[in-house]
TrEMBL record:
EC number, UniProt record: 2.6.99.2
GO MF annotation, one: pyridoxine 5'-phosphate synthase activity
Entry keywords, A to Z: Cytoplasm, Pyridoxine biosynthesis, Transferase
Subcellular locations according to the entry: Cytoplasm
Biological classification of the source: Bacteria, Pseudomonadati, Pseudomonadota, Alphaproteobacteria, Acetobacterales
UniProt binding sites for 3-amino-2-oxopropyl phosphate: 7, 18, 186, 207-208
Residues that, per the record, bind 1-deoxy-D-xylulose 5-phosphate: 9-10, 45, 50, 99
Subunit-level organization: Homooctamer; tetramer of dimers.
Stated name of the protein: Pyridoxine 5'-phosphate synthase
Alphabetical list of CDD domains matching this protein: PNPsynthase
Main location: cytoplasm
Catalytic activity: 3-amino-2-oxopropyl phosphate + 1-deoxy-D-xylulose 5-phosphate = pyridoxine 5'-phosphate + phosphate + 2 H2O + H(+)
């Protein structure tokens, strides 16, 4: 069974649009878990545009795994080592981007991210690297000691030709490197089924689409339907 992590960032986006205390991303996380989600993902951005520090603390205290998405900065590494979430997913971050635009450049940043990865692992945190489906990036992730990679599926979701084959090849390399395989970005009811066929896939992290669909059918129903598609 492929695990489903629900990203609650955009519940916080809606809350922050009016500066209110609602809707509460932690309430959304609890509801998602009640309806079959296996874990919660939240990205604490440096500009705090959606998830805030207190959200992360409250999400960490839920009786379910928290996947803490973060840029590789001293501030975020220190916070993660203090809070000790179940997992940290290291992602690229640019303040001017609307959403994460691609995978972390683990090849180019190898020397600068080696120490943060080691610190997180020594704190007992499962580390994953959000990367594009490129062979060199996957092998570098393994060499850096990260036990998990999350393949960026954004280009596939946009319909880029040959991207599904590229993801399959990347998944096979991940297996050869002994890495646990996750995937996510831009996935919907319509495009998720081919991704579930990736060899060795253990987890998908999906947020924006399911939160958007919840406007029409409710969060519980949107999560249950996605879980049905994964099974």
């Amino acid at each position: 069974m492929i695990r489903l992590g629900i990203n609650v960032d955009h519940v916080a986006t809606l809350r922050n649009a009016r500066g209110e205390c609602y809707p509460d991303p932690v309430r959304a996380a609890k509801l998602a878990l009640e309806h079959g989600a296996d874990g919660i993902t939240a990205h604490l951005r440096e500009d705090r545009r959606h998830i805030r520090d207190e959200d992360i603390r409250r999400l960490r205290d839920l009786s379910a795994p928290l996947n803490f998405e973060m840029a590789v900065t001293d501030e975020m590494v220190a916070m993660a080592c203090d809070l000790k979430p179940h997992a940290c997913c290291l992602v690229p971050e640019r303040r001017e981007e609307l959403t994460t635009e691609g995978g972390l450049d683990v090849v180019g940043l190898r020397d600068s991210i080696a120490s943060p990865i080691k610190s997180l692992l020594e704190a007992g945190i499962r580390v994953s690297l959000f990367i594009d489906p490129e062979p060199e990036a996957i092998r570098t992730a393994a060499a850096l000691g990260a036990p998990v990679i999350e393949l960026h599926t954004g280009a596939y979701a946009l319909g880029k030709e040959g991207e599904l084959e590229r993801l399959h090849k990347a998944a096979q390399i991940a297996i050869e490197c002994g890495l646990e395989l996750h995937a996510g970005h831009g996935l919907t009811y319509e495009n998720v089924s081919p991704i579930t066929k990736l060899p060795g896939l253990r987890e998908l992290n999906i947020g924006h689409f399911l939160i958007s669909e919840a406007v029409f059918v409710g969060l519980g129903a949107s999560v249950r339907r996605m879980k049905d598609l994964l099974s």
